[in-house]
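Appendix B. Raw example, untouched.
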Amino acid sequence: MDLGLITFGSLLPDARTGIVVTQRQRVREVIDSAIRAEELGFAWYAVGEHHFRDRDVIPNPTLVLAAIAEKTSSIRLATATTLVANRDPVLLAEDYALLDILSGGRLELIAGGSFFPEPYVVFDQSPESKAARKRENLDLLIRLWTEESVTWSGEFRPPLNEVTVQPRLLQSRPPLWASAGASLESVRLAVEYRLPIAFGTTSQGPATYVDAFAAYRDLWREKYPDAPGRQAGASHTFVAKTSQQARSQWSSYIGSYLSARKDSGPLDFDAHIGPAGPALCGSPAEVLDKLGNLREQWGHDLHLLAVDIGGISHATVNATIELIASDVLPQARRFEPEPRVSADA
């Protein structure tokens, strides 16, 4: 199983010291962590897209990933997620094709829609249109990337007449993934378009997503003769040399991060990091054991780790990912993956 890092560029006071870094420093930390992640052997570095919220400072992952692309050479550069349901697919096709060129063909775009209300209000979009917008915009994005001239009409943007977007992708196959939760709507969409799938598994226990992972593989095998596409999960993560150190260091940070969400309730820390909880926290051996259990439950072959949350210091983030790289990553690579579509990255 491959391991990657995922960040949303969250900007919160340090839960222990109260220190708040500047927006510029926070963005620099995101870029520096990507460079270090490549040096340490992580397979992916994923940057999220959020709009109009005080704690998030990255509304456009292409700019940050372009800066990372110039300072790295091999790590896959991903979005987590690109708000395809909320953005103009023509502009997305142009911007991300340019990023693919700048990165030497290392782009991975995870296509989704906002879970938060602000983009729908500011962009004058109905939240109820999310699924329809995602389908329409994803379909158009694929066409713009695979066809030389696109003539198209739909519900949510003006029609196109013989439009060719420039530049063209460097990769021969669109580097697209579908994002999904526990419901089957996005799973069916991913299978319909033969896309790998990334499940947002950070907020609920692992058991919540077992059926969705299985449904993706089952629906794929019903429809196609080849192996299913890649499948990814994600976790808020903290690792220290001992379980006691990890728990004592991290409880305030994950608590601060989750409490910043408007829909959050009181955090049961022990349950949240326990076998039935969504987070990874403990010694390297404990985290590796839980990753192995998740692999057995979900059957996925990529797991993204969100370490830089809750205002945790950049030095602590670096120490954590270095420990993961030395004591977790080599063993996680030995987890046996399921067969997958060979054309997928």
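End of appendix B.
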